Structures are given as structure tokens and as C-alpha cells.
Amino acid sequence: MNLKELSENLGLSQTTVSRALNGYPEVNESTRHRVQQAAALGNYRPNIRAMSLATGRSMTIGHVIPVASQGEVVNPIFAEFVAGASQTYTQFGYELQLSFTTTQDEQTIYRTLAAKRAVDGVILHSPLRDDPRLKLLKEIGLPFVVHGRVCDTSEAYNWIDMNNRSAFKQATQLLIDLGHRNIALINGQEQLTFAWLRRCGFEDALCENGIAINPELMTTAELTEPYGYQTSKALLRREDPPTAFLVSSYVVALGVRRAIGQAGLTIGKDVSVIIHDDELSYFDNGAAVPQFTATRSSVRQAGMLAAEMLLNQIDDPGLFPQNTLLESTLTIGSSTGPCKLM
Amino acid sequence: MNLKELSENLGLSQTTVSRALNGYPEVNESTRHRVQQAAALGNYRPNIRAMSLATGRSMTIGHVIPVASQGEVVNPIFAEFVAGASQTYTQFGYELQLSFTTTQDEQTIYRTLAAKRAVDGVILHSPLRDDPRLKLLKEIGLPFVVHGRVCDTSEAYNWIDMNNRSAFKQATQLLIDLGHRNIALINGQEQLTFAWLRRCGFEDALCENGIAINPELMTTAELTEPYGYQTSKALLRREDPPTAFLVSSYVVALGVRRAIGQAGLTIGKDVSVIIHDDELSYFDNGAAVPQFTATRSSVRQAGMLAAEMLLNQIDDPGLFPQNTLLESTLTIGSSTGPCKLM
DNA sequence: TAGAATTTCCGAAGCGGTTTGGATATCACC
DNA sequence: GGTGATATCCAAACCGCTTCGGAAATTCTA
Description:
The structure is a homodimer. By secondary structure, chain A is of the alpha/beta class. Chain A is 42% helix and 17% strand. The first copy, chain A, is built from twelve helices and twelve strands. In chain A, strands 2-1-3-4-5-11 form a six-stranded parallel sheet, with helices on both faces. A six-stranded mixed sheet of chain A has the order 7-6-8-9-10-12, with helices on both faces. In chain A, strand 1, helix 5 and strand 2 (95-102) form a beta-alpha-beta unit. Chain A is elongated, with a radius of gyration of 25 Å. The first copy, chain A, starts with a helix and ends in an 11-residue tail after the last strand. At the A-B interface, helix 4, strand 1, helix 5, strand 2 and helix 6 of A face helix 4, strand 1, helix 5, strand 2 and helix 6 of B. The structure holds a DNA duplex.
């Protein structure tokens, strides 16, 4: 059932039917009603390709997920973020197009997306401290919102981010207050802004408390369970092992927990652990007493807000770039306690 | 840069330029070359909306991810499956459209997708034992491939699945061979086919070995960490606690491991655990000696194969429905050992 | 070398919507 | 009853591409 058939059935012109369905005023209310009924009856939906060709808007948003190489780790927070964004899109009649790309293809994929008019805007994931995509997207004039931030730029752009720096500073301060001095930071890859800012927050707290920064207690890698396991296992074998771990994600912390258990130590008593919790739905750290003390921030909500921001920008291209900085909450769980060495 | 401009620049008709770029034979090789050069220079990409309007094919595949309700658990295997499928799509010039939907909306979302010509086909996720979507999709004539299977039907349809039944039978048999008799099954929701088949396999092995089926040792729920924790904690408090756990996913097993640790028991010695491992990239159970003994099957690869199957079906609608049954491999890790009670 | 066959290109008609610029009918008002 | 305003509808152009049905130019055949 297309517009032509529908209008012929009704004995009306395509113009009138289109206008009736799209809520234009220049159509009699009774005919509008008649049209709506017929459309519902015939299960008529405008062909979205034809519609977007005519209007020039594709009504879809692109999410480009970077992977180091094909077959590489897919960051679990993407799914959650995308689920949040999708909620907003459906609410406003937008579709979500997903593509995975290796970092070397990224230059072309955005150009292609723009040139073939596939999307009205994109969400930028996993920004680097000095991310070339920023300039690229500005150049090709495709609206975008960054999930996270880029450090080395003075230009204005849309972003939404969690306050990684203050979150990790706060978490570190808690550990220091508990008497810990030998604190390990199990971080993500520090060319990624979020990991870099977390490290800054970590060092901020150490400095303010006059504690020397020990690079040997700071590690960076992709956020996997085995990474957490191996790295904390190695750290616990040191002659002066850390008494506390600050861990960048729940998944990594699972590895840390495994290593601590295997070393015959108890979390929250012998060793303290604080994690950052993105509130992934299948992990739920939020029992009455959470297993992990954590800085928490819902990545799903970030997805919703990022999507809203992008749709606003698309509706009003003259809008000055917007920023949102989400504060995390520090919730005390059973994985932290006073330092035993004190 | 659109086709009209490009053809005017070249002094050729739109027809010829289009044909040159799309590899049609009725164009001189030298002009084809000239056209290709100009297209590359001007970064010309055909407007995908116009193209699909003209050809009638949208060149995009829909993935509809069911969630119990908005804000509910997003199954982590979706991301991995979709990453695999995406690889195939990009290879063949297709795009991937993602939508999340609550189960009550599903009837309408597929109809809408078909009516508005948004996608050329869909992948069906998380099939139920008696899934109404099967009939619906056949009725509206949208090509589809099921990731998993539907039980209660005699109709032919495209599916790709892991052999859940034999995997869990094999795993159970291993536990029985190790002397275990009190085996718990920590399963997914059994209206989902995969969970149902796993239970069947579990019971198959018990029956063949003359072991009574004890419903109190079988649990079903959404596959989250807290579920694994709470349910295994409760089971371990029984007067005759299970000596082995068969667990439906890595994430759930993490909860089981936590409960076992808290009970002062050691995995692989006091209690055995076998999991099903979907080979999610960020969990990597595949060290020299894996932490968990596991039935393994790459869900990413399943995604790639499902996508191929669907594209074949779209290219040749007369094709008889195809099926692929992937066998899992049982790899021994350090989480299993002989039953202590023997 | 005429006529047929083959190359190589083009004009124009879709694809299914939206939207511009009227046309007609209805109504109010003097 | 004539005039202007308003309500309601329509024909046709357009979005950017593909593709059908020739037409012109070239090469091949007898």
C-alpha cells in the first residue's frame, strides 16, 4: 500500500492525503479523519526511503563503534549506551544505524556516511585525547555528539561525559582516608580520554596528600577480565604489594577479585578495591550492600542524553555546541576497609 | 556532489555515468575510467536513499533486540553477535539497523519495518519455544533468519543455532564421570528455546545414567551476576548441597564463583563448575588452562554466518530455508574435579 | 559497399513521497 | 449581488538515482 493507491481509494489527491497524515492545517478535519482511518486500516506507512529523499533528511543516526581490528574486543558499554540512545530515537521517530570499524578506516567511513546521505548525525564513541575525527566531522559538516571528551582542542563541540577526574580523585581520597598509601590504578588505555582523566584524578588525590606517585603501580590496557587478573596477580607478588586497587571497570575488577582470592586474601579486609561502575544491567552492583565500593554513573542514561543533544543540534543547526558533565556517585560497598598495615 | 553535477562536469548523461560506476558492460572502458576518476576526485557517493528508492532494495538489515521492558537487561551476547554480523554486512555493502523493543511492541515493529520498507530482512533474536514472530514474519513476507530455534513448529525457516542440547548433555556427562550426582543447573529463562534445550540435554544425561531429576536443583532466570550469586548461595545452604554446577553463562558463573568463595569452598576441588562460554571478547576464558571448564561456541561467528545466510536468502527469495547447527567444543579448565563425596 | 550487427551513448520514465503555486468553493460583509 | 477573505483541495515539479527503449556511430559480413 503506497500513497498513490491510498489516495485513489479515497478519491483524493496524494497532496491532500499526505497533508492529512502529516498534520498540516489546510485540510478539513472530517477528511483528515477519513484519511487516518483508511491509512490505519490498510496499514499504510510512508516509504521511508522516498520520504527521506523528498525531505532531505534520513531520520537515522549513525553510531560508529571503533574496534582495534576485526575480531577485537567489543566494549560492553557500547551495547548499554546504544540501548539508551535508541530509546530517545524511537521516541522521536529516528532510526539507529550501527557500524563497526577499525581505526584506520575511520577517516573514510565518516566521509562515506556523509556523502551517501546515510545519516543525519553521528555519535562519536571512545574519543582519544587528540582525536582527528573531531576536525574531520567539523570539516564535512555532519552534526555529532561526542560521548566523552577530547583534551587537546580549544574548539567548541557537543559532548556529554562523566566527570572521570573528580570521580577517581574522590575514590582515591577515600582509600587514603582509610589509611592506604600503596594504591594501584588498573586503568584503561590512556590514549583514550576517559582513562587519561581518571589517572589525573588519581594523581590529584595522591599529590594533595603528599603521596609519591609510583608508575609501577599504574597499568593500562584494554578492559578485560584476564587483564585484571594478570596485572593484579603480578602486583600482589611485589615485595611491597598494594593494599588497595582502583579499577576502571567492573569486568576488570572481576579479574582482580580472582587474583586476590587465589592469593588467599579477602577483599575488603586484606585488600580494598574500588571500581568504576557503568551500571551495566546484567551486572547490577546495587544490592543493599554492593559487593564493590564504586563510583557509579549510568552509561545508559548518558546514551539517552547524548541522543537528545544530537537531535536538538540537528533540529537547529545554528545552536551553539552543548556540553553535559555528569557527576558520579560514590557508594560504599563491602570491598573497602581500613588499611591493615597501619 | 550528485549524479547530475557529476555527469554535467563530464559532459555525459546520467545514464552513462551511473552505468559506468555500476559496472555495466555497455560503456566504453576509457570513458568508464574517466568517470571513475572524476567520481573519486569529487568524492562522489550515490545518495543511498535515492538509490534504494530506485532499486527497491534498502540495502540494510534490521536487528530487533527484545528487552523485557525499557531499562531492562541488555544481553551482552547481542553486541558480540551484531559485531560478527556487521562484518559480513560491510563486506557486501549492507547497513545494519538496530532497534530495541519490548515484547508487547514486537508485533507492530516488524509490520512497520516491512511497511515502510526500512529493511530488506531481519535477524530474529532470542526465539521462544513457541514464537509468534515466526508466523508474523512469514505472513508479511520479510526475509529473516533466526538466531536459535523455535520448537513447536513443523514449518521450514532459516535458522542458525548452537547445539545446546548435546553441549549440555556432554557437560553433564563429564560431571557424572567425575562422580558427581548432585548437580545443579543454573539456567536461563526456559520459555527461551536455548535454555529449554540446555535443560533437555542436562536431563538426557541424568536419565541415561539413572540419576533422578531433582527440580530443586534447577533454576531459571535472566542471566545476571546477582542471579548466579544468590541462587548458588541458596543451593549451597541445603543440607545436601550440589557438588557441581552447570551454569548457562560466564556472567552468571561469576556470581556462582563469588558465592562459592564466600562459602569458604574452592572451585575445582570442593565444587565443580562447568559453564557455557559464548566467547565474548572481553572475558576470554581461553588461557592455556582456562579458568572454567566450558562448552564453547563463538557467538561472533554465529553472527557472521547468520548474516551470510540472510543475504543469500535475500538474493534468491526462492531458496529453500537453510539451517546450520554449530557444535560446541568442551574444553577442560581448572573449575572441575572429581567429586569429593565419592 | 550495402546492410546487418555491435558498440556506445542518451532521453525519459519511473521509484514514492513532499511541497509549491494555484484553482475552486464557501463564507462573511457591505 | 459583488467583493474579498478563507477553507479546502489539486496538478505538477522535485528529491537523486536506476533502467527501459531507442538512436547514432562504428565495425563486421557477404
